[in-house]
# Entry
Amino acid sequence: MSLSVSLKTAASGLQAAQASLRAISDNIANVNTPGYVRKAVDQTPLVVDGVGMGVRVDGVKRITDEYLQTASFTAASDASRYAVLSQYLDNAQSLFGDPSGDGYFFSRIDDIYAAFATAADDPSSTLLRTQALSNIDDFLAEADRINGQLAELSDTIETRVLADVSRANDLLAQINQLNAEIGRAKLVNADASGSENIQSQLLDELSTLMNVRVTRRAEGGVIVRSTEGVLLAGDGAAKLAYNRSDSTPGYISALAPGGTVAQPIQIASGEIRGLMDLRDRELPQLSDQLGEFLTRTIQQINAAHNASTAFPAPASLTGRNTGLDLPTAVSGFTGATTLAVVDANGVLVQRVDIDFDAGTMSANGGPATAFTPATFLAQLNAQFGGQATATFSGGALSLSATSPNGLAIDEGDSKKAGRGFSHFFGLNDLIRETSYTNYDTGLSLTDAHGFTAGDQITLRLSSPDGLPIRDVTVTVPAGAQMSDLINALNNTATGVGLYGAFSLDSEGALTFQGSAPANAQLSVVTDNTKRGAGGPSISQLFGLGAIERSSRASRFEVAAAIDADPTRMAFGKLDLTVAATAPTIRPGDGRGALALSQAGDTTVRFQAAGSLGQVTMTASRYASEFGGSIGRNAAAAETRKEGSAAVMAEATARRQSVEGVNLDEELVNMTTYQQAFNASARMIQAAKDLFDVLVNMV
# Structure
C-alpha cells in the first residue's frame, strides 16, 4: 500500500469518526427533547479495484422501526377515538343525574305514580291533584332539558369535528411541504433528520385525529394515504372536507391536488371517528330511546286517563291530530266502546254503544244500526240524538255535549294499534303531544296511504360508518293503498330495494331493515310529501330519520285545560250498571286515580331504540333497563378508553426503546469513535513521519 493511499484511508476514517461524534453529540444533547429520534452515520467501505481505500459517509439516518411506528399510529388513533367517546358518553350520562340521588330522572316517574296513588285515597283533594300535575310537569320539563342538552352536545361535537378536519388539513399541508425539504437534503447527502423529526411529530398528531397509512418515499419523506388508499399527502396535499346535514350522517371527503371532485374516504379510527360516532349514532340513539321511553310511558298514563272520567264530566273532548282521515282512522278497530252523555249530577242522558266487530251502533240499548268507516261520523251524530255532536277536522275527532251536559267514555275492549277508541283519538289525554310521537299508526297494507300522488321523498342509504352509498328519490305512486306505497319505496330501481326493505307491522309501524352485506342505514334528505291537505309527511307520520325520532322527548305537555284546572283530571270511572236514574259518575270516585297509579305496571310494546331492541315490558321495567344501558354504555366506553390507552402506552414505549436516546449506549459509541478518531490521527501522523524520513533520505 502506498503512503498516499494510507493517508487517504486514514483521512476517510477521521472524517467518518468526526461525523459519528457529531451525531452522538446531537443525540446526547437532545436526550430529553420530545419527538427527537436518535441518529447515526451511515457508512460503507470504500473499495477501489478490490482494494480497501477507507470508508465513505453516505449520510445521516434516523434510527426508526416502521412496524413499531405503524403500531404506534394505530394505537394512538384508537386511544383518541375511545377517549372522546368516553368523555361525551360520561357527559351524557350525567344529564340523567345520580342514580342514588333524589334528582335521578328515572325516579321521577315513580314520583308520578306515587302521587296518583296518594290522590286515589282522597280524590277530591285539589292539593293532591295539583301535586300530581306538578310531578308530571317536572318530569316533562326534565325530559325536555335532557333532550335539549343532548342536542347541544351534538352541536359542540360538530364544531369540534370541523376544527379537527381543519387541523388535519394543516398537518397534511405541512407534511407535504416537509417532503420537499427532506428530498432536497437527501439529494445532496445532507442531514435531513431535523425535518424528518418534525414530520414524524406531525404524523403522530395526525394519527390521533384520523387513521392513515404511511409509507416511505424513495427520494425522502413520506406518502400518506387513507384506509382505502386515497392519496392525502406526498406529491401534493389533499383537501379534506366534513360533509353533513342536520338529517344525514356526516362523512369526510378528500379533494386530490388539482382534482375537481371530492372522494368520500373511510375514517375508521381517531378522534374524528369518535366524534362522528357520537354525532351520528350514540347521541341520536340516546335521544330516540328517551323519546321512546316517554312515548310509551305517557301512552299508558293516557290510556288510564282515557278509560276514566272527571266529575263533573267535561262538556267537550278534543282529540289529537292522528294524521289520518276519519274512515282510515276508524277502519281496523275491534271490540266495543260506549260514549255517554250525562247531566251535571252524572245521570245518564244518552248512551251510544259502538260494536266495531259487528259494525253497528245503538242508542240507549235500542236497535243496532249498521255503519261503515265512511258513514261512521254521520251515524254517530244520529245516535247522539242531538244530545252531543261529533266533528272531525285536521285529523282530530272532537265530541261536544249539548249544554249543560257532559261527556264520559267507557273504552270497553275496543282496540286498534294497542289503544282503545278514546285513547287512539286522544279524546281525553292527560298529556298532549305537540307533534307526532307514536309511530304505531294502525295502518294496514290494504288501507289508503292518503299521500298525494307525485310528491317525493329523498332517502339516503349510508354504510354503518356514514359513507353515502346512494340517494334515492321515491315518488308517491298513483296506487292508493299502503301496499302500493311500500312497493314504491322498495323498488330496486327507484327505491331502496337493492340495499334493504321497508315493512309494515301489525301495529302500523313502518320500519327499514338494511340487507347484507352493505347493512345500509337510512336517513331522510328531503321530504315534501303530505297526507291530505295540511297532513303529515311520510317521515313525520312514520318516524323516519334521526331528526324526527330524536326530538320526540320535547313534544309533550300537560293538557292546558287540566293544567289550569286540576279538578278536570279523570279520577273516576263511568259505571253503566247503575239504575237509570242513578249517577253513572260520582264525586269522590278514585278508581281512575288508582288506575293512573298502576299505569307503570301495564305491559306495553317498546319499539327498537338505542341499545335496546323491540321489547314488551312495563314502563317501570323499561326505565330500569334504559337507565342501566346508559350506565353500561358509559362504563364500556371508559373500559375501551383505558384498554386502548394501555396499548398506546406499550406501543409508544417499544417505539421509544428503538428511537429514543440511551445515554449508556451513546457513551459507548462516543468512546468507540473517539478511539477510531485517535487511530486515524495516529495513522496520519505515521504517514507524515514516513514522508519526512523519505524526504530526508533524498
In short: The mean pLDDT is 91. The radius of gyration is 38 Å.
